[in-house]
Design a protein that fits this description.
The chain is of the alpha/beta class. Helix content is 36%, strand content 28%. Helix 5 runs parallel beside helix 6.
Length: 257
């Protein structure tokens, strides 16, 4: 394992359309660790993931982010991805006219910075799809067009399996999934993590249910732009039992006068 943490976030402040969303986030993720970030709507969970990937609408006003010891904030989104940062979107985009096979091969080429022969790519794709229990005809479809919620999310995990990132950000991957789809998607995430034991994972979710399948090493609660509480997997169970109202009562900031 690397001696440096994959990700170090120090006093991160982020605004969207001049509105402060993150107000001093501190978080460290080491190699092989699984972290869960939980919190109510509007707390800033997705803002954190988009800011880390370099979305231009998310302005970092202060703070520091180091990725494997390098200043992440000086990198463009494409460089961050090539360095090994991966984001699975809550709402994957539909791209008509682009086949899944074509998209995945282009994606892998960009990650490696070198061409990938069709023969090599087919063999690699077959291996990863078998690991995720996906049928081969899936890659002949157009990207997310007509996909169910479960298919969209499984495609995100297939991307992760091919890219083998250093750090995977999973932004509400459980959103819109029924019980069976959630189980299948989580099994895929666990399979990728088992294949790449040094990969760090940040699971962003509202609910405990995803953590029934993926056991986190650490759970953090984000509230009003700050991580207000951290603990082990039992913290998610406590949150499930008490709800976010208990967190609001404990940590809500007094109104400014």
């Amino acid at each position: 394992m690397s001696e440096l943490p994959f990700l170090q976030i120090r006093d991160l402040h982020v605004s969207v359309a001049d509105k402060p969303i993150l107000k001093g986030v501190n978080l460290t993720i080491n190699a092989g660790e699984k972290h869960a970030l939980m919190g109510p709507n509007g707390s800033g969970k997705s803002t954190l993931s988009y800011a880390l990937m370099g979305h231009p609408n998310y302005k970092i006003t202060s703070g520091e982010v180091l990725f494997e010891g390098q200043n992440l904030l000086e990198m463009g989104p494409d460089e961050r991805a090539r360095k090994g940062l991966f984001l699975a979107f809550q709402y994957p985009m539909v791209i008509p006219g682009v086949k899944v096979f074509q998209f995945l091969r282009t994606m892998l080429k960009a990650r490696r910075g070198a061409d990938v022969s069709v023969k090599e790519f087919r063999a690699l794709l077959k291996e990863k799809m078998a690991m995720l229990e996906m049928k081969e005809e899936f890659v002949r479809r157009y990207l997310n067009e007509g996909f169910s919620g479960g298919e969209k999310k499984r495609h995100e995990i297939l991307q992760m399996a091919l890219l083998e990132p250093s750090l995977a950000l999973l932004d509400e991957t459980d959103s819109g999934l029924d019980i069976d789809a959630l189980r299948i998607v989580c099994a895929g995430i666990n399979a990728v993590a088992a294949k790449n034991p040094n990969m760090g994972v940040l699971i962003i979710t509202h609910y405990q249910r995803m953590l029934n399948y993926i056991t986190p090493d650490f759970v953090h609660i984000l509230f009003e732009g700050r991580i207000v509480k951290s603990g082990g997997k039992e913290l998610a169970l406590e949150l499930e039992a008490q709800g976010y109202e208990a967190i609001e009562n404990e940590f809500r900031q007094p109104a400014q006068v």
